[in-house]
Amino acid sequence: MSALIKGGSWYITPDGERIDMPEPANEDGTFSLEQLQAAVGGYIESVHSDTAKLAGKVVLADEEGLLKQLPINTVGSAIVGRLLMGNVVIIDKETWA
To answer: Does residue 25 contact residue 32 with C-beta atoms inside 8 Å?
Structure first.
């Protein structure tokens, strides 16, 4: 599973498509809240994942994904070991403010 989360910052759509994140907008090299919210499609929630932590990554999802009845993200769910809905963002720890 760790091979799935290597290589930059990106997000996974519910249909399994991997899309690269744009360059971080903040001057300190971190992503802006607006960038992260746009990628997940709403309010962001940091999701605990030992696999991501070991790889130096942070996993984010839409905190209201279940309420919005977003489609299940099977790839993102497999990475973190719990049900995630909608887009799942995986970014380098250094780009998380």
So the answer is: yes
Please, what sign has the CA dihedral across residues 44, 41, 92, 77? positive
pLDDT in tens, the chain (97 residues): 445 566 689 999 999 999 999 999 999 999 999 999 999 999 999 999 888 888 899 999 999 999 999 999 999 999 999 999 999 999 999 999 8
Alpha-carbon dihedral of residues 5, 10, 12, 18, nearest 10 degrees? -90
pTM metric for this prediction: 0.90
